[in-house]
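[User]
Um, tokens okay?
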Amino acid sequence: MIDAANFNRVSLAAQVEQALREEIISNRLQPNQRIDVAHYAQMWAISPTPVRDAIKSLEAAGFVTVSPRRGVNVADLNASTLREIYEVRIAIECTAIRLACRHVPAERAAEALALYRQAQACNGADRTAILSEIDTIVHEIALDHCNNTRLQRAMQDLNDLVRWCRLSVIRNLPAAYETTLPEHIRICEALVACDCEEAARAMFAHLANSLDRITRFLAAQAPQAPQAVQTAITGQSAPTGQPA
């Protein structure tokens, strides 16, 4: 039998989870940083129980790790983690854009393509801000018009991890928005042409290229960093007896 007394607790745990999730995504809580359950319970004037419940959900979603020795920590956003996130993203979004190509209204596809082309032609001081603003449009089309509720839920579950990647790593890539712009245009051109297979191929190329750029960027940063930072970036320690 369902215990109605648990309803408020469940609702509170969900609110705590969302609050902690935003702390992580926005980098107010950094990768590998310890999360003190008692501190947050005291700060929010609640019992530790909903905080612990929230931690379980965040662990399942990949945002935190829990171990007997280290306690609760924000997950390590290293190259291995990013690769896993992008491999799942490729599998999901290529299917989503193929389906969306069948259902997206022609005017929305044309509008998206026009926005990307206008940004491509813009040479003003606000070019980077414009590119940042429209960066996710084609991915929103895949989500909104794939016409598959289960696929949409999977994408929504993944989107916070992707947003975390974007705010923590991707925005630091050299000319990140400039590099992805022609890839987004290629996807939109396929949508306008109602070429579902080309849309899927273009999305695959875009996400695979993004993963490659991220991997090369992190690898380039690692040798310049102290060993503790290098381990956080690559997920690997220097071999025993070798210089860090």
Remarks:
- Residues 225-234, 236-244 have pLDDT under 50 and may be disordered.
